[in-house]
């Protein structure tokens, strides 16, 4: 953050210097006003393009190793396909109602799936279920 602030500070200092220099040159030499306005327009256009490219640059996200589902553990625990879907949606942070809406089932059905997951994973809370699901490689 400090680097960005310093970079913009130097850019603004250079801009002020350039404006004062052009002002001095304008009084010393008899050049038309349109010439100085054109130079300023080119400078500000270049500065705007540079700042826009710098601020809108896409950030590179380093992705870890690919996720592989541990199907053996899924079958060992007896987790159904629908319960696995509910676990994935819980890991994304969706509420029970949002999960029900997304899967086109009732809220009570989701609650039943979640309680079955809690029993099969031997946990008591959603966060514990998500953590155990990640440890067992059931969800990414």
Give a verbal description of the structure.
With 140 residues, the chain is an all-alpha fold. It folds into two domains: 2-55; 71-135, Arc Repressor Mutant, subunit A, CATH 1.10.10.10. Helix content is 72%, strand content 0%. It has helices at 2-28, 33-55, 71-77, 81-91, 96-103, 107-121, 126-135. α6 (107-121) packs across α7.
Strand fraction: under 5%
- Helix residue percentage: over 70%
Low-confidence stretches: none
- CATH arch. level architecture of the largest domain: Orthogonal Bundle
**Largest beta-sheet characterization:** none
Principal-axis shape? rod-shaped
**Rg, nearest Å:** 30 Å
Mean pLDDT: 84
**CATH secondary-structure class of the largest domain:** Mainly Alpha
**CATH superfamily of the largest domain, please?**
Winged helix-like DNA-binding domain superfamily/Winged helix DNA-binding domain
Category from helices, strands and their pairing: mainly alpha
Short description:
The protein is an all-alpha fold and 140 residues long.
Ordered list of secondary-structure elements with their pairings:
Layout: H1 2-28, H2 33-55, H3 71-77, H4 81-91, H5 96-103, H6 107-121, H7 126-135
Helix pairs in contact: 4-6, 4-7, 5-6, 6-7
Give keywords.
140 residues, mainly alpha, Arc Repressor Mutant, subunit A, 7 helices
């Amino acid at each position: 953050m400090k680097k960005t602030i310093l970079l913009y500070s130097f850019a603004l200092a250079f801009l002020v210097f350039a404006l004062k220099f052009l002002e001095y040159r304008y009084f010393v030499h008899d050049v038309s006003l349109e010439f100085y306005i054109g130079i300023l327009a080119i400078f500000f256009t270049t500065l705007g393009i540079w700042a826009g490219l710098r601020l809108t640059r896409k950030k590179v996200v380093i992705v870890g190793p690919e996720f592989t589902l541990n199907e053996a553990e899924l079958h060992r625990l007896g987790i159904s396909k629908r319960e696995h879907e509910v676990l994935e949606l819980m890991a994304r942070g969706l509420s029970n109602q949002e999960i029900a809406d997304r899967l086109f089932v009732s809220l009570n059905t989701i609650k039943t799936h979640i309680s079955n997951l809690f029993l099969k994973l031997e946990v008591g809370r959603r966060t514990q279920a998500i953590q155990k699901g990640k440890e067992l490689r059931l969800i990414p």
